[in-house]
Amino acid sequence: MSDTLTEIQPAIPTPITTDEVTAITRQFNYGTWRIQKTWKPMHIVDAEGCYFIDAAGKRYLDFSAQLMCVNLGHKNPRVIESIAEQAREIPYMAPGYATTSRARLSKKLLEVLPEGLDKFFFATSGTEANEAAFKIARMYTGKTKIISRYRSYHGSTTASIAATGDPRRWAMEPGGKGQGFIFAPETNCYKCPIQHTYPNCNIACADYIEHMIRNESDVAAVIVEPIVGTNGVLVPPDEYLPRLKAICERHGVLLIADEVMAGWGRTGKWFCVDHWGVKPDILVTAKGITSAYMPLGLCATSRKIADHFEENYFAHGHTYEAHPMTLGPAVATIEEMQRLQLVERAASLAPYLQGKLEALKAAHPSVGDVRGKGLFWAVELVKNRDTKEPFNSMRDKVEGKPLVVDQIAAKMMGAGVSIQAWVSHFVIAPPLIVTEAELDLGIQALDDALSIADALVV
Length: 458
Known about the structure:
Layout lengths: L1 H6 L10 H11 L15 E5 L2 E4 L4 E4 L2 H4 L8 H13 L10 H13 L4 E7 L2 H16 L3 E5 L8 H5 L12 H4 L2 E4 L19 H13 L2 E6 L15 H11 L3 E5 L23 E4 L11 E6 H6 L15 H17 L1 H22 L3 E7 L2 E6 L12 H5 L5 H11 L2 E2 L1 E3 L2 E4 L7 H14 L1 H4 L4
Parallel strand pairs: 3-13, 5-6, 5-7, 7-8, 8-9
Antiparallel strand pairs: 1-2, 2-3, 4-10, 9-10, 11-12, 12-15, 14-15
Helix pairs in contact: 4-12, 5-12, 9-10, 13-16, 15-16
């Protein structure tokens, strides 16, 4: 059998033009989170380092690391080789078996995760990892309700979208309440949802959650993105997460940290909670764990939660759990991050990027706020700085109305820079290998394109 397989020659693919690629994709695939008639997908044929390349040969600086996930940059040779090595060793095995890649990754994770998180469930996305976290929290506590926040995104499957605070959950309403999720105010010191002002607020948004816990009486967990991702890179005050952790411990409620986007060196620490020394009961992550080269999600729990299931049934699992093809490359990714010192690099580049963004704000009346940590930043646009009124609402996004940020992003693409735009802000999160010169290139493109928003300021 082996000799026969060795003799098989690879098939030569049928030639296909860019127009055909685009037309087939458009006709037979769904474009996610959009009205379909406006979707005109670009044909990408290559990517390397901090750039990707379209079919016409034009290079684009990947200023948001695709979906804030390609932390190593494109085509890291060691991670690519690890994928081939894993395929040769063992491409699939059911999750009831032990594999070498599973053991190696489990040991490697102990080097970088917050201390005390040492029992793992491997999924294939952040969405699935959050689904696992919700079930684990409910099984462990015997309680049902989970508190999330209004400016949040936790995934697109049934429970994870129910836990999502923004209007993307509308398609499965009224499932949120039916799924046991309730919502608290987000932490947004630029535009506080409960109209307080830091530091005089004494972290009222955390106290609000304690009030909810006391009055709901059946709360299993609180889930937060330590730094909110897609919904604006909302950085909490230093007191917030320690206060929230203390509240959860006082009431026997688990704290779930969703670090799908903010983890893996993005903020200048291995994980965002490390900035505040907070140890969550459950940490969920994905994206950067393989630099998105393979689809892997992780739900990591404390030992006290793990011990519960020594004598109690663990009621969760799926076919692709602990898939070897996803685990081997994760080890290589972590090793490459360590070798290249990318966590330290993100921290060292933060002051440079912050200075550039603050200069951008000073130069453009349409920029209301810039905020972030490490190489994870948002530029928020406003129609009026005094009122902080945005150009568009989240409802505009759902209804497919033209957005100012999309016009700016399109102009930047014309200049060879790709950036993630969401409603009224941009997420700047380049690969962690980015250089100062590449940061300059991206900021210059944004600087030039902001004239579109400046012309609309009132």
